[in-house]
Amino acid sequence: MELKFGLATPSNLWSLAWQDRQQALSTIVDSGFDHIFMADHVSFRDGSGTDGFVEVASLSQLNPDIGVMISIYLLPLRHPLPVARQLASMARIAPGRMIFGVGIGGEDRHESEVCGVDPRRRGVRANESLEIIKGLLAGGPVSFAGREFEVTDAIIKPRPRQPIPILVGGRSDAALTRAAKYSEGWIGVWCSSKRFSDAVDIVQREAQVLGRNAVPWCHGYQPWVGVDLKDSKKAYAAVKAGMEGFYHIPFEKFERYTPSGTPAEVAEQLAPYIESGCRLFNLKVCAEHAEDEVALGALVVEQLRRYAPSLKVQA
């Protein structure tokens, strides 16, 4: 099983001219990253957001070798039929390069409410959506009558020639059950390596009960990291400012599970997750200067590879 690495879209990417964006993506590929990932929010906190599908579609066309991932897509805020169509479109314009990370959100209840979704129904909506989407991408037709969605003889053509891996995010036990039933992997955030190991075991045990014994599991971890070439204090300050600016929550809520330091120090803090079963790292790199994010993230990746000599690691 290959160890895969993803990089969050660099914070300065969309301010670059078109040719400079292309060069930036080429640099990311050359730096050893398998994919670039993008978050998804409709109206988060103060109204901020990014449309995950629009952005990964754009990213996929900047470089023919870059994989793209939405992580994490707020599935309960959408109807499953248009989402299935978007996935089928991505399979056509970037064949074999898409990973679909889904979750139910929850950091901002108002974001669900302004979309007309009861925050208490997010889990049910996600489960029913995944049931419908997987049926549609398998070829359909799909008829489904649930508590949130009802479709009759729904079809999405053309179906993807290559399956699109689905990873389910979330820290709750319900998220682990969702991953076991519908995904090819669980993606964790803000948890210890012990919790990660326990979660992987839960997913695989529940999947076996469901008869999903042949799944090519790829479980992942998605940390924010602060990195500086020499100064650990600058690394800490960078990730603290980045997370507080995005989440509008004191950094102390995240600090325990947020690595920072030199590339070697950050890799050392993340290495236990490999032993716990992590095979995909999505790194949100924070640095004193935005233009250094890719290079510093690449150094973390280089160091992390040293902790996985027994794996077939993609160079």
What does this structure look like?
This protein is of the alpha/beta class. The protein has an eight-stranded parallel barrel, surrounded by six helices. It has a two-stranded antiparallel ribbon with strand order 3-4. It contains ten helices and 14 strands. The chain starts with a strand and ends in a 10-residue tail after the last helix. Helix 5 (122-137) packs parallel to helix 6 (173-182) and helix 9 (263-275) crosses helix 10. The protein has a domain at 218-315. Strand 3 and strand 4 form a beta hairpin.
The major pleated sheet works out as:
8 strands, parallel, barrel
Strand order of the largest sheet: 1-2-5-6-9-10-11-14
Question: What fraction, in percent, of the residue positions are helical?
Answer: 40-55%
Shape: globular
- Figure out the total of helices: 10
Low-confidence stretches: none
Spatial separation of the terminal alpha carbons: 13 Å
Strand content: 15-25%
Structural class: alpha/beta
H/E series: EHEEEHEHEHHEEEHEHEEHEHEH
Tally of DSSP β-strands? 14
Oligomer: single chain
Nearest-angstrom radius of gyration? Answer: 19 Å
Overall pLDDT level: 94
